[in-house]
Design brief:
This protein has 209 residues and is mainly α. The chain is built from twelve helices and no strands. The radius of gyration is 18 Å and the shape is elongated.
Length: 209
């Protein structure tokens, strides 16, 4: 555990600004943005959501939206038909089952169309301050390279991280691992020479013996 705490400390030093890069003002906007971000960059989502949220400022508005209009607004995010179906369906369920308010537990969030464990964990952590680590491609890759997990599925990696990192750090650790994956520990060519975690990194040790 001490090694893991040191890894988090060094990540904090490297990325003092680590937080979500999605633009949002409330849980509804964050939920929609996270659904749209699947296989899409946060930068692209942030270019799309201002017009979307101007047209549909809350779940009540989006629940009544025309599918074709939503598809037009989010087209550049990719997989726009499925994403439009999901954000409209999620809004409808928020109205019918949760009184118009985005639910604040992982279990309830996962009942919404388009919301799996990763999305639920992000919304729970970022919007509601819950303790959760969402495992996206960056978190999955970086955790395995650093030796924080040997899991071969996102769920197994999440379980390993929950054991490896103190609970009160879960939410922030999620962002730290994402930033490290985006800025240093790239999938194809990690920038090991400029990484402050080399001495703790399993990947570096195995490739620089």
């Amino acid at each position: 555990m001490e090694k893991n705490k040191e890894i988090i400390r060094l990540l904090n030093m490297a990325y003092p600004d680590a937080e979500t890069e999605l633009d949002f003002h409330n849980p509804y906007e964050l939920l929609v943005a996270v659904i749209l971000s699947a296989q899409c960059t946060d930068k692209r989502v942030n270019q799309v959501t201002p017009a979307l949220f101007s047209r549909y400022p809350d779940a009540y508005a989006l629940a009544q939206a025309e599918q074709s209009e939503v598809e037009r607004l989010i087209h550049s995010c990719g997989f726009f038909r499925n994403k439009a179906t999901n954000i409209i369906g999620a809004s409808q369920k928020i109205i019918s089952d949760f009184g118009g308010e985005v639910p604040s537990t992982v279990q309830d969030l996962m009942t919404l169309p388009g919301v799996g464990k990763k999305t639920a964990n992000v919304v729970y952590s970022v919007a509601f301050g819950g303790d959760a680590i969402a495992v996206d491609t960056h978190v999955y890759r970086v955790s395995r390279r650093l030796g924080l997990s040997k899991g071969n599925t996102p769920l197994k990696v999440e379980e390993d991280l929950n054991r490896a990192i103190p609970k009160e750090l879960w939410g922030h650790a999620h962002h730290l691992l994402i930033f490290h994956g985006r800025r240093t520990c790239h999938s194809r060519k990690p920038d090991c020479e400029n990484c402050n975690l080399k001495e703790y990194c399993v990947y570096y040790g195995e490739n620089n013996e």
